[in-house]
Request: fold
Amino acid sequence: MKMIIHIFIILSLVSSISFASVQDFCVADPKGPQSPSGYSCKNPDQVTENDFAFTGLGKAGNTSNIIKAAVTPAFAPTFAGINGLGVSLARLDLATGGVIPLHTHPGASEVLVVIQGTICAGFISSANKVYLKTLQKGDSMVFPQGLLHFQLNSGKGPALAFVAFGSSSPGLQILSFALFANDLPSELVEATTFLSDAEVKKLKGVLGGTN
Reply:
């Protein structure tokens, strides 16, 4: 019995060692090839402290658009130092009535913290159950990886939030844009969404879709 326990401990240690990082970091090289695990590593001799700092989140984004909102991402390779570390973040600016439409991040879960204003946020599980919460300053909410979710400014003034992701490249797909901002034939959109021809063409016109 003791031998079995010892073997188990040794195997656990070997397993942990084999999956441990073999280098301190892998600063993204945007000129190199990209793989599912991230960007190629920059030559360590060319890495500086600037690769591990990002200053883009201190400025409000432009909310003069159809969704009255702006997302400022700090993802790889823009924030080169986070490449391969399994983290990233972004700033959300929402004008009054602004919304981050239903979307998904296929590569990461998300945690949001409200800095200013009131945000109605929620996600839909794979069982189509809705989890909805009104968040005030200082409140947080988590959105599981791959699930549709949204954020809406439900207050009377501008709202600000910061979000963190469990990946340096979480990915993004916005449902409305996926359906109505491309050249997917209108008849297919109608057949798969049960919307009328007039409704589909109106939404394509608003979001820039064709066909």
About this structure: The two ends are 69 Å apart (CA to CA). The chain has a mean pLDDT of 88. Residues 2-18 form the longest helix (17 residues).
